Structure formats: C-alpha cells, structure tokens
C-alpha cells in the first residue's frame, strides 16, 4: 500500500521525527536514529563554546537523515529569522522549524510572531514548519503564508503530559490541507499512537526519548506506536463498525450450554 | 583594540582578519557560521575582512535540539 508523507517534494519514510536535545551522550543519538531509521531530525543553533572542544552533533546524525534546524532561543520574529538564516548558512539545507518562545515558564509559542517569521522565511525560499499553539485560524494563516506543515503542541515542551490539546488538533487535522505534526509534550508511545490514529501526519519526540534510561528501547517503542497508529488511521477510513456509546457488545458467543 | 566575540569583550592586536580569529580559536571552518556585525559572512570572505575596534562577531554551530 502506498502511504507516503511528502513535504515540500520530499518523501519522508519515517513519521517519527526525532529531536536531538537533552541526550546525555551524543553517541546515543546515533544509536537511536539508526535503530529507527529516522528520516527527519531536529537540531538547534548555538554560540560555539570557545573554551571547550565539544563534539559536533552533526557527526552523530546519519547522512540519510533530513536535518531540520529549529529557531529555539528566538523570542520574536526578527530573532527567528536571524537564526534561520544562520542555520541555512551552516549548509544543512533549508528546512526550518520556527519556534518563537517569549515565555520561559511554560515555553509556549507566540503564534503571531511565528506567522510573521513564516511570511519572511517562505519568501526567502525556506521550507517552513512552524511550531505553534494549536489554533485553527492561525494554522490557516500559516498555510496561506506558505508553511509546508504545521506543528501544534500536544502539551508544554518536555512535560511528557501527552496530547492535552486533542480537540483542537483534531479539528486542525480535518480542516488543514498541509500535514499536521504534533510536536512537544508526548511522553509515552501511546500518546504518539493516539496522535497518529487521529490522523496526524507525523509526530516529533525529543525529551521522552532523550531522557529515557534506555533511549533506544523507547525510540523503538515510539516508532512502533507511530506505525500502529498510522495503520489504525488508514484502516479507520474503511471500517464499518461504530463506537458504542454505552453498554457492551459481546465478542464471544453468549448462547451458552450451561443454561440448556 | 576591543572586539566582542560571542558576547564576550576581547582585546586583540590590530591588522587581523576574521579568518585569523577563527583559526586562532581552533574552529572547524566547515562546521561554524560567522556573523560579522550582524551580517553572515561565508568562509570564502573571512580573509577579506580586517577587524576594527568594537566589531561584533558571533560564531555559531549546530547542537542537539528538539
């Protein structure tokens, strides 16, 4: 069965996007990405630490992966644009996850500044995937501005609280014509499965994998969950049964021999 | 003279190029991006820029991020 995710002309095999932050050891990043054959991987941009020679994250990302830089650290559109241009100059392509976060307590994004940055960067030829507070009206504006996908949050970054924004994300999936990718807050593989079963095109997971005792095992579990959720979504379009609102329906024959 | 590199004031000798500074910091040319007074300068041009007092240099690279 052909079920391809295509963003900006690129076919993406793996619908589990992986963030590379917070790993205690960079070698594990490579193990994780190889174990699940990751397709899309996010990185951040930072000032070089001139006092210590740190290993470069790019050495731990397999060549087949598409690198998507984020604009973390940006507090407004102007800073996001500046970071995006620097990221592009790093020579790893033109995919950018716009992340504009003025709030340090909940790390919630500023949708308006995100829209402004999207408008500018799309015109400059970037493939823009904005991280956003779930909102249908803003998602439509982002699509109009040329966003290649939209990435609503499930719950605050790093919180592992799962898909707390389900109702709005569900509406976005139904109404938005570009891929909807849930990014942030997914703590358990079951959260990822839920997103995919609803019809998300992909999910992005970082903290839940990076902070696991064994990131490779958890990454595999997320990967399996994403595949299972996607299959369930595709199948749901064909299935004939409906969800019963109350009561039970026996799945085993009840015509018992005991009362006869 | 004084310049700022990654937010830190530094004293350097005169007549140095941007490239001299990058080399002095032992950085991998292919892995860093340099912004000179808020303008991105490709590595081909580092040699053409002679630093002057109060210049602001940002040197960035990719790190892990979500």
Q: Could you provide a short overview of the structure?
A:
The complex is a heterodimer of chains A (260) and B (66). With 260 residues, chain A is an alpha/beta fold.
Describe the secondary structure blueprint for this structure:
The complex is a heterodimer of chains A (260) and B (66).
Chain A: E1 5-7, E2 10-12, E3 16-19, H1 26-35, E4 40-47, E5 66-70, H2 77-89, E6 95-98, H3 111-123, E7 127-132, H4 136-145, E8 151-152, H5 166-175, E9 181-183, H6 189-198, E10 202-205, H7 207-210, H8 215-236
Parallel strand pairs in A: 3-4, 3-10, 4-5, 5-6, 6-7, 7-8, 9-10
Antiparallel strand pairs in A: 1-2
Helix pairs in contact in A: 1-8, 2-3, 3-4, 6-8
Chain B: E1 2-5, E2 8-11, H1 18-24, E3 33-36, E4 39-41, E5 56-64
Order of helices and strands of chain B: EEHEEE
The chain-level mean pLDDT of chain A equals 93
The gross shape of chain A turns out to be globular
Total domains of chain B? 1
How many angstroms separate the termini of chain B?
A: 39 Å
Beta strand count of chain A: 10
Spatial extent as radius of gyration of chain B: 12 Å
Shape of chain B: globular
CATH superfamily of chain B: Beta-grasp domain
Structural class of chain B: mainly beta
């Amino acid at each position: 069965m052909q079920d391809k995710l295509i963003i900006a002309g690129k076919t993406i095999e793996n619908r589990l996007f992986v963030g590379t932050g917070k790993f205690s050891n960079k070698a594990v990043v490579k193990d994780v990405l190889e174990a699940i054959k990751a397709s899309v991987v996010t990185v951040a941009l930072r000032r070089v630490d001139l006092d210590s020679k740190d290993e470069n994250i790019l050495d731990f990302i397999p060549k087949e992966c598409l690198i998507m830089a984020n604009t973390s650290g940006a507090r407004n559109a102007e800073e996001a644009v500046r970071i995006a241009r620097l990221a592009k100059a790093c020579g790893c392509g033109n995919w950018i996850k716009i992340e504009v976060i003025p709030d340090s307590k909940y790390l919630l994004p500023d949708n308006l500044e995100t829209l402004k940055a999207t408008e500018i960067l799309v015109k400059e030829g970037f493939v823009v995937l904005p991280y956003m507070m779930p909102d249908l009206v803003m998602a439509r504006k982002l699509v109009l501005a040329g966003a290649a996908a939209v990435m609503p949050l499930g719950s605050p970054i790093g919180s592992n609280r799962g898909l707390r924004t389900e109702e709005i994300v569900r509406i976005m999936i139904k109404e938005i014509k570009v891929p909807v990718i849930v990014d942030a807050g997914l703590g358990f593989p079951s959260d990822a499965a839920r997103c995919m079963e609803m019809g998300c095109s992909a999910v992005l997971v970082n903290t839940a994998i990076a902070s696991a005792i064994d990131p490779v095992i958890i990454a595999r579990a997320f990967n399996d969950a994403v595949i299972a959720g996607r299959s369930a979504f595709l199948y749901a379009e064909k299935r004939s049964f409906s969800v019963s609102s109350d009561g039970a329906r026996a799945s085993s024959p009840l015509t018992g021999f005991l009362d006869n | 003279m004084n310049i700022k590199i990654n937010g830190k004031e530094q004293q350097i000798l005169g007549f140095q190029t941007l490239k001299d500074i990058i080399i002095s910091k032992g950085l991998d040319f292919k892995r860093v991006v340099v912004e000179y007074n808020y303008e991105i300068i490709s590595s081909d041009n580092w040699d053409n820029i002679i630093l002057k007092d109060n210049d602001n240099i940002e040197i960035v690279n990719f790190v892990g991020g979500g």
